[in-house]
Specification:
By secondary structure, the protein is α/β, with parallel strands linked by helices. About 45% of the residues lie in helices and about 20% in strands. Strand 8 and strand 9 form a beta hairpin.
Length: about 280
């Protein structure tokens, strides 16, 4: 791409409180040739409030591949483009990866204009270790897939961070208790920076019970932060999986799992999911 090509700006916008909209973000958005947004109806009022009149184009999961090509042409013509999400930092469980990747491959400059992010905002107030964490985004809607993923994370020692839909919170918390253990410390941050911002802290057991009786807990945008497994749990999981592989060669699945749990102390649900995976890798046995 020629040196005169434009710049793709990846711009963070408020997740709630409009005062979090940085001066730099407003300046960039007002100056670009167009702004790629998830939903023009959602973003237009925010931009209008700050006097930003740049042209809006929709970019979502269903049209991103085609729209990215159009936006790259704009960059090649030497004009600047901005990318925003409905709220927060783009690409964090939001569309935009294909556009950013295409711009990089085309040789365009890609520039971050950082700002609000629900993930980092929740981590900053959760009171749970943040030196090492993993972001899992949204868990699967289907129960079996959700439980399988949680089982795979049972011995993960880094802090776990999830987004969750309000209507699935109680069900997901129950699955987290089952897979990770009810004693794990956790925090649920809802409606970050908004009028009804609330932080719930406690054990997974306590939070799962609270979700069943407190309707407000399951309203708005939700981030779940869970302490990672301790080293003992990690070692138990490794020992349990190694034992499972031996037992499954000789015993039915349920019996093998029961013995592995008793011998290793690893969570039963986690080992059961491991056993299903081992059996699936060896069909016909």
């Amino acid at each position: 791409m020629a040196k005169a090509s434009g710049t793709l700006y990846v711009v963070a916008t408020p997740i709630g409180n409009r005062k979090d909209f940085s001066a730099r973000a407003r300046e960039v958005l007002a100056a670009v040739a167009c702004i790629a947004v998830e939903d023009t109806r959602h973003s237009a009022p925010l931009l209008r409030e700050f006097g930003i009149a740049s042209r809006l184009v929709s970019l979502h999961e269903h049209n991103e591949a085609a729209r990215a090509a159009e936006l790259i042409d704009i960059l090649k013509a030497g004009r600047d483009v901005a990318l925003i999400s409905d709220a927060g930092t783009p690409l964090i469980s939001d569309p935009g990866f294909r556009l950013v990747n295409a711009a990089q491959e085309a040789g365009a400059r890609v520039c971050a204009v950082p700002g609000p992010s629900a993930v980092t905002a929740a981590l900053s107030i959760a009171g749970i270790a943040t030196d090492r964490f993993i972001f899992e985004g949204f868990l699967a809607e289907k129960t079996a897939a959700r439980r399988e993923r949680l089982a795979a994370l049972a011995t993960e020692t880094r802090t776990l961070v999830f987004y969750e839909a309000p209507h699935r919170l109680a069900e997901s918390l129950a699955d987290m208790v089952s897979a990770l253990g009810g004693a794990r410390q956790a925090a649920i941050a809802r409606e970050m920076t908004k009028m009804h911002e609330t932080l719930y802290r406690g054990s997974l057991d306590a939070l799962a019970a609270a979700a069943l009786r407190d309707a407000d807990m399951s309203r708005g945008e939700i981030v779940v932060v869970i302490a990672g497994a301790d080293a003992t749990q990690e070692r138990a999981g490794e020992a349990g999986e190694a034992l499972l592989r031996v037992l499954l060669a000789e015993l039915p699945l349920k019996q093998a799992v029961d013995l592995a749990v008793r011998a290793s102390g690893a969570p039963r649900n986690a080992l059961y999911q491991k056993a299903l995976g081992i059996k699936a890798d060896k069909p016909g046995e």
